[in-house]
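Good day; I would like, with your permission, to put a structural problem before you. A protein sequence and the structure tokens that stand for its backbone fold form the material at issue. The record follows directly beneath this note:
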Amino acid sequence: MKKIIRVLLGFVALVFVAVAGFAIFVSARGIPHYDVPKLDAKVAVTPERVAHGQAIVMASCADCHTNPQTRKFSGQLIPDLPAEFGKIHSANITNDKKHGLGNWTDGQIITVLRTGIGPDGRFRVVMPSFVHMSDEDINSVVAFLRSDNALVQADASPSAAQEPSFLTKALTNTVMKPTPLPSQVVEAPAPTDAQAFGRYLVVGRYKCYDCHSKDFKTNNPMEPEKSEGYLAGGNTLLNRQQQEVKSRNLTMDGETGIGDWSEGQFVQAVRFGMSPHGALSYPMPKYSLMSEEEAKAIFAYLRTVPIIKNATPEDGATAKL
């Protein structure tokens, strides 16, 4: 019996040392740096690409990167990130040559969008990686960021230093990793194939699943459908009053999802922020530049997603996390 107790105590001590060692390593290393992928790219800036890029950027980037003081994409404390991740600031992505993207190459912008790795090798924590976005969409984003739009005109506001929590450091040293550059051309499905095009919009262009699955920590950027609670909501976000908000269940469950919504009601909710039950509030953006065709395609795809029963507070029930 004494021998068994000694073995157990030894095992516990070993585990304690391992955990303590990992904690010290993570605290000292912080957010990891990586070798920067080399990508030689030059994007042709056209009016069509600038307009298309603006629609994408306003839907996917504006809420985090717009500084309320400068009214430009000069970065801010990310307003809807739960406190458990620490204080994470979005970067200055204006055309300022010192503090923004003015001296970045097109390849470097595409690389950080696709992988999360900046020219300095630092992993951009929390920033979505658009690994499944089509090449044309990516090029359009670059074209807009290079444009003379007031939002991206050079602003000398320096990007704030990050203050990640231990949890964020631990996650970025374990499960949250950069995504690879695509090894081949990435094309969007034709809009005529509504379900395939809708899936592309959900996982590639707008990344709806990122917020609308169970948790940022268990999302799977390479295989989005394998994210825990895929599109069934329950992820914790913050509104502008720093109150917790749970993302809505977007599966077609009739009681806790959107199974009782019509196509027209869904289009109104996504494009204009008006659901069948009232106005949608932050952090749900209004995709005012999204076309009706896109919104209908997303709805067509959501009809094919496996149904999950998961009540959220918007349904008047306690969220099942």
